[in-house]
Amino acid sequence: MYSDEFKHQLPDVDPGETADWIASFDDLVDQEGADRARFVMYKLLKRARQLHVGLPPLTQTRYINTISPEQEPYFPGDEAIERRIRRLVRWNAMAMVLRANSVSPGIGGHLSTYASSASLYEVAFNWFFKGKDDGAGDQIFYQGHAAPGMYARAFLEGRLSADQLDHFRREVRPGQGLSSYPHPRLMPDFWEFPTVSMGLGPIAAIYQARFNRYLLHRGIADTSSSRVWAFLGDGEMDEPEALGALWVAGRERLDNLTFVVNCNLQRLDGPVRGNGKIIQELEGIFRGAGWNVIKVIWGREWDDLLARDTDGTLVNKMNETVDGEFQKYSVAGGAYIREHFFGPDARLRRLVEHLSDDDLIRLRRGGHDYRKLYAAYKLATEFQGAPTVILAKTIKGWTLGSSVEGRNITHQAKKLSEAELRIFRDRLELPIPDEQLAEAPYYRPGPDSEEMRYLMERRRALGGGLPKRVVRSRPLPAPAPETDREFAAGSTTPVSTTMVFAKLLRNLMRDPGFGKRVVPIIPDEARTFGMDPLFKEVGIYASQGQHYEPVDSELILSYREAKDGQVLEEGITEAGSMASLQAAATSYATHGEPMLPFYIFYSMFGFQRTGDQAWALADARGRGFMLGATAGRTSLNGEGLQHEDGHSQLLASTIPSIRAYDPAYAYELATIIRDGIERMYGRGEDVYYYVTLYNENYPMPPAPDGAADGIVRGIYRVLAAPDIAGGAKARVRLVGSGAILQQAVAAQALLAERFGIAAEVYSATSWQQLRVDALEAERWNRLHPTEAPRTPYVSQVLGPEGGPVVLVSDWLKALPDLLGRWLPAGYVSLGTEGFGRSDTREALRALFEIDAPSVVLGALTALSRSGELPATSVAEAIEALGIDPEKLDPLAF
User: Fold this and answer.
1) Is the alpha carbon torsion for 365, 388, 286, 568 positive or negative?
2) Measured distance CA(890)–CA(893) in Å, rounded
3) How do residues 416-457 score in pLDDT, each as one tens digit?
4) Burial degree of 431 (CB within 10 A; 0-12, 13-18, 19+)
5) Most buried of 69, 91, 589, 809, CB within 10 angstroms?
6) Helix 200-217 and helix 574-585: axis angle, to 10°?
């Protein structure tokens, strides 16, 4: 017995007919069994789709090809010629890795990934990938480990030389070598997107497709003919970033996006899902996220067997067989396949009794069948209303021989013996003499050969050779003077640098020269950062517009979504926001349309959470601004250790193309932003900026004359030493950054009033840029011993004269300590070691010993070490300042 729990709120207009249908189905199960009943259900569902009856799709279908043989479109090419081209690429891809490891043993490389995916790429290169000769073309995220195949094809096209192939993974001499993986930083005319850091390609591709729509809907670029492709591995899909944004593509209906997952069932050490079925698992995930799923599991050799499988026995066997077993079949002989796959069921044995053991071995997987793949790609590019994923089943190391093909060690394979090379050559039917095999020579037919004419004609028809990166963008004008003039005047009203930035951003967006090119990117924190006025002014980008009346529609600052909205309000996803940043920051090259992205976020959730994407942005030669708001270990006082950032400036400083700044005042921030716009979009420098902002309010002084150069270079003097009646007992220099500069200013007054010591105050706008400058000077001096030595800028500003130096910030001491060897001996560094915690700013700064009394103590200590004050004076000052010398070290908490 069972209870009918069908929703009774849905009226049954004909209960009698419904009962007849249910009774018929019960009889089918009783008389024919569950398998037959399941088959009939599938047929009914398929018919429902054909009749456009609105039923939700299954999240998982049977383990067969999505496209039936009778549904396959006509293949317009010459499959024999394309097979020969594919074999040429396979051979040269293998040869470059072998030759590289012969010259430099251990330099590495990968043979198996491209070997399994060659057909996946070649179908696309010959029929679908749009080149960039006449425009932006397609954006393609290649699987990183398959890079040798892309180089090999470019070699056939004449875009790379044999000498360049021979310098695979030897990149020291610019222009001579080929990078290990896709790296625009190393090969700026070839690769567009860095993808080898697993999982970053998928999320970057999704947000690239969305950004293409953003450009289209805002009328900036016609991206309607551009498609984004991402080639991925099934093992790579275990990465959270690989799957975490699928719902974005489904929600946004990104039918300009195609994923191709190379399901060779193997990751680096063994099976992806030995006890399961990764293709079925991925199908359920993608369908659940709103994607169109096309499975390419079996090659054409299986079509006849499946057509004769009238009772579904073969399909059931396919459904029940786990991936670990399929991997065993890929390396076992035909007799083993006959016994273990077909043998247990007499019906299956009869199904293949006409096939020899060799025939069973030749039952290919679908990812190696050109016609099956062409059909899948064609359907994917024509499908509307949702993104498409193609799940193509392959064998890792396909064609490389029995010692590599399908083995658990295949990912590590970098060499083949001469005997294995001979087998490989024979399998590819290439005219390479035996006596040359030991050197694994490259092979390229003459330009008039049938293969080369065909290959070049296909790429000409599709817009030129790929991969290819082209920079066609023009410089942007500098912001109008009135954009940031107000910030140089200062303000007596206390304000935070976060609020200053919000005002500056609004000014930039109103600039007639490039305001429409500003791309604000926010992970659901706009109100925190004072940026909510942008919602009404320029709108939040929403591909479908706004189909509701917001609850605050009657307010001045209402929440407004629009199809042409300018703000990318990403929701709570720093990873998604970084992917949008990369798409916007590389638009100058991808589409020839320079866009000016400003990504603002809680600084704790930037480099710590998405550091891998920050490196990818650098590799991609991205240009734009990252704004780490609510920065500092003590400035965001109420949030506790999970939110209080004392290290992002240090993490940012590890990325070579970043210019990292920690401004204290409004005019400093405005100067830095203007400098960044000029460098990136005026001069075309491939750098990006990390600027930390604070939520602490304090008055903003006017800009001193001539300060701009020092602000950009990293340090300048804010306050001269005060005059002290009777003369100063000693002199010191106090250097602060960000919000903590205020503590240095307060310490200057304390030193003068209570201790008779004169202090100059400096603002260190960029500890990182000071180090970069010092390293450049140091290197130049080392390489030019007979020339007059250069003096680092920080040593010019903080020379040996002027007294000891005290450095203080809201960051780890390691940040200012980066400058240690270029500073006067005995400098004192103060910072925020340890975990953050919640309390008042005053209490936190006392705890971490960066408040004004602690800065004073640092100055007195430095003077004592230099012999200008006795130690007893320092001890007396500790008591007078109310500092507990026995209090717990912050690191001990």
Assistant:
1) positive
2) 6
3) 888 888 988 999 999 999 999 989 999 999 999 999 999 999
4) exposed
5) 809
6) 60
